[in-house]
Amino acid sequence: MSEQLTLHTADGLLLEAERQRPPDGVVTRATAVLCHPHPRFGGSMRAVVVSPLFAALPALGVDCLRFNFRGVEGSQGESGDGAGEHLDALAAVATQRAASPTGPLLCCGFSYGADVALSVLDAQVDAWAALAPPLHFGVDAEALAGDSRPKLVVLAQHDDFRDAQEVAAIAQGWPNTRVEIVGGASHFFVGRTDRVIDLVGQFIATLVDGEATGPRSPS
Could you give the angle at the alpha carbon of 24 between the alpha carbons of 19 and 25, nearest 5°? Predict the structure, then answer.
């Protein structure tokens, strides 16, 4: 069963959130914050890619939290282009770290949410997973290029919003970064969501087991 939560942002807003812990008998090995796609295009914490991850990761030992950005459904405030949503993600990270103080914390997002996730350079974050990031909303590529924490970038071969090779060329310049291009996939990974879940699960396993990451070939 998922747990309903309220997040408190630094600028005084209340956001709706939901946590899903590993089932009985499964040891919590890591924790994750999931950031959803752009609200202006119907994005919410129940969006494609985010919902399958939220359903699948707890069975792998990951304590997951998803939330609605400001102005989305039951969350207060108004949506913007990343600045306020950055504070929303920070609130989610702080809440999740307090709830699960041990194990690596992954800040993960899809599409616009991937950009927001990558903007959270807070010390409480141990790694990032960016799924189809457009790299248009508040991402400091220079700062990421100077940050040695592990990063996973999963791209769709036939992305509708930004060419995967353009994003890969930027991300491959970041240290400790694994870049995966999912063959045949569109921006929403229709029919390839299982592959995305597998890649994120493998990446979390490397964080827990202390294995190195690095660029990989298309999959």
Answer: 130
